[in-house]
Amino acid sequence: MKKRIAILSSILGLQFSAMAQTNNYADVKLTHLNPEKSAATWIRAKQVTPRYPMDLAIKGIAGCGVFKLTINEDGKSQGIELVSSIPKNSIFKPAKKVIKKWRWKNISGQPNQAEEKTIRLDFCLGGNSEEEAIARCAEQANLKCK
């Protein structure tokens, strides 16, 4: 009996170990809706892929959110509002944390002034590689976010 329990424990341990070693790939895609990036006064100072919010990753939540915000004269995000999202109640809080940390730089050559923006963030999970996660996110960004 003890031998059977030891074997069963070993098998379960190997299964849990294999599960813990499974890589989960994720990507976040930012789309500038209004104004488009080419017509914007302000762009993000660091043009790197936004980090996937830990709250969403832990819960295995993928989705999208459309946000309105204002970039103030100091290049900070403020007045962040959710326009639409999928899923409805999970995206806003973690996405707002991400957006609030961004710093923006004025690329217009004009004096700093506030600019209203509408952006879309797609939070994508899955795939067997980082490239596959990025491709999935590009496809997801073409779908409606309502």
Automatic annotation (TrEMBL):
The keyword Signal applies. GO terms for biological process: transmembrane transport. InterPro entries: TonB_C (IPR037682). PROSITE patterns: TONB_CTD. Residues 1-20 form the signal peptide. Residues 37-132 form the TonB C-terminal domain. Keywords: Signal. This is Outer membrane biosynthesis protein TonB. The keyword Signal applies.
